[in-house]
Amino acid sequence: MIPHLFRWGLASVALLLVSGLHARTPNPIAGERIFNASGGCGCHTAENGQPLSGGRPLKTPFGIYFSSNITPDPETGIGRWSNLDFLRAMREGVAPDGSHYFPVFPYTSFSKMTETDVLHLKDYLFTQAAVAQSNRPHDVWFPFNLRLSAWGWKLVNFGPDRLLPDSEKSENWHRGRYLAEAVAHCGECHTPRNLLGALKPDWPYAGSHEGPEGELAPNITPDAETGIGQWSADDLAYLLETGMLPDGDFIGGLMGEAVEFYARLPPEDREALAEYVLSLPPIQNQVRAPDAPDE
Amino acid sequence: MKRTLLMLASILLLAPATLHADRNVDFIKYRKAVYSSMKGHMGAVSRILRGRLNEYTGHIIDHAEALQRMAHLLPGLFPAGTGFGETAVKTAAKPEVWKHPEDFRKAAKRLEDASADLAETVRSGNVKAIRGKVGAIGKACKGCHQQFRRRD
Asked: A14-28: per-residue pLDDT in tens?
């Protein structure tokens, strides 16, 4: 595992050196599309807080993590970060000071993003209002409170994972897969996790009882009984635009917040997401109790 | 004899409380039915629009007016004792409904107003504005769910 990770680190550094990071022109408009597809980096905005200034509590089985300030404030935000800092954070889960992020920050998904998109996202974030707000320390149990454990977790659970093209699938499907897997990070909430908090590889999008903020994340595989197998692609795209479920109900919670941003995407992005999600293998997994509240 | 009397006395004392709890269960069931009916009207409106059933556009007025009336009832549907864990049935209502009744009343009013606005828009024949008005109702629903409904 260690040489594997090391090799990948070396490879990515080499890639960055040859890609000429200094020679690019910022493109915050392209970055806004990535930002919206990510759900507006909503975990970094606390209730009644300034946008993107962090401090939002994220309840997990390991304790409460507080999201960080990602506004361009130089002292408390990411204003002093270089492109390389931002790329390493997003794709390798490594902070500018060399420490490792806890996987509550879904670098595990963002690692699949293209370098161009990651930097466009940074361009966009740097156009946002800087907010001076110091990061709050996490409130998690031992040994998960140790940064070293984040490193150990990474050795066991994280490897570079590329999205390989599938010649049988359409361009739209590939776009949807990229958005879902790398940018919108759907699986981070909708895929159940193991005891170590890693996503269960055989249960993609099958729903989780321990979704964000202690709420349930439904099964979104196209299983007819326990998932969304009865939905059309139009139903799903419509949900991503309006927040309305096919039966007329409206979602809330973190997904409700994310939809505010998905609604700003070009329609073809929502359609691509819908095509990809409905193409997943159906998994039978009853997450919601049949007598779930209806109010 | 003494024990029987004691039992009888405690039954008599506890009976009203038990009856009251049953009443709260019934009330929560009623409340859920009201919400279900709103969901049904919203689903109907979206099916008319998404199915391009243009000859039924006029029906949107009926659905919107029904939503408006139901929204008007909402602030009165959360009496004390009908929260989560207070009865034998589940409820998705967060404690915030009772903690911030004024905010909840405002959230319900937003839905009431947005529904009235939709009915009026259809009545005036401004077909192009319909989708936007339905979107405003969606925002009212979603915003309230975010603040006052939990999912589990």
From this structure: 555 555 555 789 999
